[in-house]
Task: inverse folding
């Protein structure tokens, strides 16, 4: 982390005042607020002051049994990046010297690291409440320990951001401020990606009420999301919807084999992915499509509108 980057990007989660790197801490210009930087991780969260819900999230993800593995194979990230490039190109953002991206609630930053490796002149942040997860993220990422429902970034400093399998961990009442903060941080024309478990998938609904739930859900409080509600929430926060896809992603078999009863789940996700390839195609705003009931995940793209000049 360098002073030149952080002094123009990060803000206090309390006052929204800009933060500047001063040795091993981030501080406001009046020095009234200060946040430590440890092992190149900016700590914009006070564990002693968080509420019970956020503390529960921190404890769950600090103590995961499966660490250091991406849930998905690179083909999924490749598909995401292809769509993102196309949307950034349409708004002219891709012609900027640098695209600044943030994975919000990103854990070990698998989405951010793929984008950083495959997009020229990009700078990538990963923001999460779990110190343990952030320590596993590569140092090529800007690592921020923060609550994504509170201010993290200055207004308009990001060209893209993503809730990548993270939004569903938030209680519904905390999703609105997460969207509002993402909207604030994005530049005009910036693109927000939402990739989350799809609540409408019929097999998932059955699993929620069976003993299999504990095999695949690490947090007892987590649940999938309703993408119609997500689209509505995004619009209310100021975004315009570009595209929503429902898909069965290519799971990483190494990850799946870490699960209890993996011998059951592995062939299931493989068959679903093969069916996805067979019937693949581009669909716009698929909220009424039958495929939402047959797909494990949804992927939405939203844009922050450009003001008329």
Result:
């Amino acid at each position: 982390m360098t002073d030149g980057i952080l002094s123009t990007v990060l803000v206090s989660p309390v006052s929204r005042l800009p933060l500047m790197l001063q040795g091993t801490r981030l501080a406001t210009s009046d020095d009234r607020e200060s946040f430590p930087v440890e092992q190149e991780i900016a700590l914009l969260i006070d564990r002693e002051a968080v509420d019970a819900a956020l503390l529960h999230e921190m404890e769950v993800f600090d103590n995961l049994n499966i660490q250091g593995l991406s849930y998905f194979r690179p083909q999924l990230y490749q598909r995401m990046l292809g769509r993102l490039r196309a949307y950034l190109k349409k708004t002219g953002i891709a012609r900027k010297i640098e695209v600044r991206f943030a994975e919000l609630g990103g854990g070990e930053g698998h989405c951010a690291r793929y984008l950083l490796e495959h997009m020229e002149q990009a700078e990538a942040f990963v923001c999460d409440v779990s110190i343990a997860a952030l320590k596993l993220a590569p140092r090529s990422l800007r690592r921020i320990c923060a609550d994504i429902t509170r201010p993290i970034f200055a207004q308009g400093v990001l060209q893209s951001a993503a809730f990548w399998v993270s939004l569903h961990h938030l209680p519904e009442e905390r999703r609105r401020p997460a969207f509002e903060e993402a909207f604030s941080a994005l530049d005009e024309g910036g693109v927000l990606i939402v990739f989350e478990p799809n609540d409408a998938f019929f097999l998932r609904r059955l699993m929620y009420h069976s003993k299999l739930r504990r095999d695949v859900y690490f947090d007892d409080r987590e649940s999938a999301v309703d993408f119609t509600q997500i689209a509505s929430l995004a619009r209310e926060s100021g975004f315009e919807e570009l595209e929503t896809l429902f898909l069965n992603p290519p799971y990483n078999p190494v990850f799946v084999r870490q699960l209890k009863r993996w011998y059951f789940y592995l062939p299931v996700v493989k068959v679903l992915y093969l069916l996805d390839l067979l019937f693949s195609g581009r669909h716009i705003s698929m909220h009424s499509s039958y495929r939402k009931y047959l797909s494990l995940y949804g992927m939405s793209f939203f844009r922050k509108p450009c003001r008329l000049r």
User: Anything to note?
Assistant: The longest helix spans residues 74-91.
